[in-house]
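Lab notebook, bench 4. Still working through the backlog of constructs that have no structural model yet. Next entry is a single chain of 107 residues. Request: give me the C-alpha cells for it.
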Amino acid sequence: SNPTGNTASLTVDLATEIRNINDFVAKNNIIVIRTASGNALTSFLAVSSVCPHAGAKVEYNNSTSSFFCAAHGSSFSATGALVQGPATTGLTKLTVGITGTTLTVKS
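Model written out:
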C-alpha cells in the first residue's frame, strides 16, 4: 500500500467550466458541483467519488441532485450524505480552494 500516493487533485477553470448551478466536473476520483452562483468557496461542493462501501466509483446525477453507486446500489443526497446502503457512511467531503477563477481540490 502507498497511502501518500493516493492524493488526487483537480483544477477547474471557473471562467469556462461549471458556470451554472448544478453543473459538475468528475475526474481524478473527485466530483465538484456548483451549488450556488458566484465564485465563493460556499458556491461549490467537492466530494470523493470513491464509494465508502467498497471503493467503486460513485456518479453524480445532476437531474436529481444526488449521487449513486451502481456497484451495489448505495445512494447519497445532494450534500453527499448517506441515503441508502449498503454503504454505512456518506461521501468524503473535500476542501475547495479558489484563486482568481481557478478552483482547486486536493483530497
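Notes after review: Confidence is low (pLDDT under 50) at residues 1-6. The first strand starts at residue 9 and ends at 13. Flag for follow-up if needed.
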